[in-house]
Amino acid sequence: ISRAPLLGTAPVVVSLTTFGHRTASVHHTIESIGAGSVRPARLILWLDDEGVLADLPAPLERLRKRGLEIRSCPNYGPHKKQYPYAAMLPDHVLPLATADDDIIYPRHWLAGLLGAHRNDPRPIWCYRCHEIVLDDNGALAAYQQWRPCTTSNPSARHLPTGVSGVLYPPSMLDALREAGEGFLSAAPTADDLWVHSVALRSGHEVAQISAQQAFFTTIPGTQRGTLQRKNVKEGHNDRQAAALYGRSEMMVLRAAR
To answer: What is the pTM of this model?
Structure first.
């Protein structure tokens, strides 16, 4: 029932998307972002469901009156978090923080991402990433063998995982825009892998905000129909990684520390 503005003066844009049953609970995520210690200059929710856009749930309608932008986009799956915003501007000035629609973010969430970016604006910053593992022959190990990151040092071998939040510098947003919609064929359900492959090709490293991964509160009842089983347990991440990491990308990974 709050009428307080969701937006503030922090020089950052926040973007997220939702689908299906999560449309009824995504307002909790948005409320948690709006209640942060700093508030973004823009807060955008991307939807591909024309029925929902035509008849918004009451909580989303109230949030729109408080500053939330609700925009239509094609069904890019998980890529809706970052690609529609990256593609909408010819030249990016502000960084973009992406959020997942099933998380309650703590008050320090956006301030932490923005603070890390201010200290070093070059990397992609995140609260949680994996270290990509290579086998004895220098080839990609299976995705399930990739390790949790245990350092805050930037590296080309760090894969940002979106659930806890990722901040992209403007130059990375330009790279995603230029890369276009190649993810539709190469990585339709693996936006983390696509983003990382673009980062490798554009010279962007990834850094975790602290040496320990951060895990935030999950909204109850939101874990139906997630990509976790398909991508990880059924091996879809391995197939999509094989399509994304070619000779040039593997050379960067082998040279990275």
So the answer is: 0.94
